[in-house]
Amino acid sequence: MIEATTLSAYVKEPLVFTQENYFSQDELFEQVTQKAADLDWVRDDFLERIKKRETTFPTGIQLVHYGAAIPHTDAECVHEEFVAIVTLQDPVIFQSMEDNDQEVKAQIVFVLGLNQPHAQLEMLQSLMGLLQNESLLAELLLATTPSELIEIIKQNNL
Predict the structure, then answer these.
(1) What's the predicted TM-score (pTM) here?
(2) Cβ atoms of residues 130 and 158 within 8 Å
(3) Over the stretch 62-109, which tens digit does the pLDDT of each residue have?
(4) Which domains does the chain carry?
(5) Count of CA atoms in the C-beta half-sphere (13 A) of 63
């Protein structure tokens, strides 16, 4: 039996950003990529490719009370697997994955840095489950430190 991919296995404190303010997707992607590059977790083309993929295949998800996004790119761009989590004080605009003409004001963004294609699908399924739990999302959005956010994920066996 294949073990389910758990979020807590991939969330690492250097790539958890809480209560941030970014003016654009690009600024958010640049911050996450810079930190991942400093750790040597991604290739040099990670930033360019995640931006391009988001333009071609938007990942914004409008929930009942919140907006979220799950940007990701090709597995070969990732040396060390991670899921970066960014919670935002002011939402960043993403295009909806269901309708490219619709904007989603994302308050939480999960940037997937996975290098195993099957893990990407499992992680997307896991995150969709999390996104359907609005009370848990609210808890994550209230976290003020990376360690607090990670603790919420661990307590909820994500």
Answers:
(1) 0.94
(2) yes
(3) 999 999 999 998 899 999 999 999 999 999 999 999 999 999 999 999
(4) 7-155 (3.40.930.10)
(5) 21
